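Sodium/potassium-transporting ATPase subunit beta: structure, please.
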Amino acid sequence: MPANKDDGGWKKFLWNSEKGELMGRTGSSWFKITLFYVVFYGCLAGVFIGTIQAMLLTLNDFKPTWQDRVAPPGLSHTPKVDKAEVSYSINSYETYMPFTKALREFVSQYDDANQGDQSKFDDCGQEPAEYKLRGDLDDNAGVRKACRFSRKWLGPCSGLEDESFGFKEGKPCIIVKLNRIVNFRPRPPSSNDSIPPEAAPKVQPNVIPLFCTNKREEDAGKIGEIKYYGIGGGFPLQYYPYYGKRLHPQYLQPLVAVQFANLTQNEELRIECKVFGENIDYNEKDRYQGRFDLKITINNV
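Here you go.
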């Protein structure tokens, strides 16, 4: 006779009441298995937690322990645009409104009204000066003051007098900054050997020079005059070093406003901006390490 499907089967495998077995094992066997895995995974968790705690002991709350992978410095600009391309028509406000909005929001944090607290800000001068050292990277001296940087120093690119930041007149501005790196002290170039001849006049003491020019040979002669606004047309040393968010919460990076006063219109132009210094490097794989390039197209039709 064929076996009766109801004589036990999988139900009996799950629980055998005659032998007191669960899935083929007795209660004592399951206890041993459970105990083994509890101990095993408990040991793994203990090793993991111990490793994390040991690593935390090597970290400093104020100074990054590992900076060997940081290739200083990054150079960035506002407005930030997709594919590094600024294209607009001087006859259409809608085409350049996103750029001016981004600029206005960015420079608003540099309003004088935000820097009035004497306990948080210092006047560090409007001329390039030496590093402003504020002690070691620890909490013994407490929170450090920050140097004031007024947006009015950006001249026609400040947005105070011209809310279009030059876009309406076909003379667009961009705002350039060096990215923050804790305790980094950029060093100005000691000679002109590594600087293009056309950029050499921008070299001066206590400032990291910024220089913009055509990226492509065919654009030579189409860029026109480039104006620089800020302190010394570059990044002055008195704003360095940066002590980090915990010790330097009010810190403001120095800015350079770059205005393209006479770009050839109705053509796509490639412009490259670079900073120069002894400890500033460039990398072909990183388009923002010490430099950036930008496509600009101004249409008037």
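Notes: The chain has two domains: 9-57, 75-299.
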